[in-house]
Amino acid sequence: MLDPRICPRCGDLAETPSVAGNERLCQRCGHRWPFRRLPLFALTGPSGAGKSTVGPALVDRLGGRVTVLEQDVLWVAGLRDDVDGHPMFRRTWLRMAAMVHQNGRPVVLCGTVVPPEFENLPERSLFSDIHYLALVADPDALAERLRGRPAWRGWDECRIAEMLEFNVWLRKNAETLDPPVALFDTTTAPLSATIGHAAGWIETRLPQASGQR
User: Quick check: 157 and 143 in contact, CB under 8 A?
Assistant: First the structure.
């Protein structure tokens, strides 16, 4: 699948891809080609809230209607940019998701992200919407989960404190972000309830025929 920024006719690499209806438009040569502009679902929230547990369960629960991907698999080498918001990393994921969308299934991307880190990027034009659902938890429960993780994951007290601060910030600001972020508290919720909530949240926002152009 060709990088959605590249025109298949003249090879121009668009800094900001142009989408007109159900077509990509090359601003250089005028070529148009079919393009599925689907919604992206960001299952976000602090580490330890349950994203990595819920994500795989959605594969079975949603019956092949979406493609579930784990964000951290690309958090490697040159994509570990130190710039605030990690724009290189985010832009790469948006291009990847847009390519997957051309197969007709919306992507559910599991990983910590907030709207300002996606919404202002050039690749945002490749999606009809980006929906955000954040799993959160009470600080004590979150800290206990993170302390129980394997040592190789590197969750020392300093890093845990940073994640708890993000958890508090997200719970306070979710409604005022653009677009707003939906919250689901996993502190005492059974895993089945969390999975059911996430699946229902996605189902109500799926295109009626996600494979249509």
Answer: no
